[in-house]
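Reopening this ticket.

The earlier resolution said the output was attached, but the attachment link was broken on my side. Pasting everything inline this time so it's all in one place.
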Amino acid sequence: MATNLSKLKSGKGTPPPADDVPDVIEANPRPGEKALLRPLQVRIPETVFAEFSEQAGREFGFTHGAKKQLFLKMWKAYKAQNM
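Inline output:
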């Protein structure tokens, strides 16, 4: 998105009017994130972490939250198998 610099010449001492930008948080609500979240911390070998990270990236894309999504998928499969 290019910035319109012509607004800067509008008048000395007055700030340019703000651009109308859509509220990205309101426009993209994250479904399923309403539950209270708690951290789960474990220590695992570095090789396992690297393999897990690679698998998460392959399945859910190399983005923030991929490992969480893979863990939740594994947990759901575990519960389905053991219930």
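Reporter confirms the inline version is readable. The mean pLDDT is 82. Helices lie at 24-27, 46-60, 66-81.
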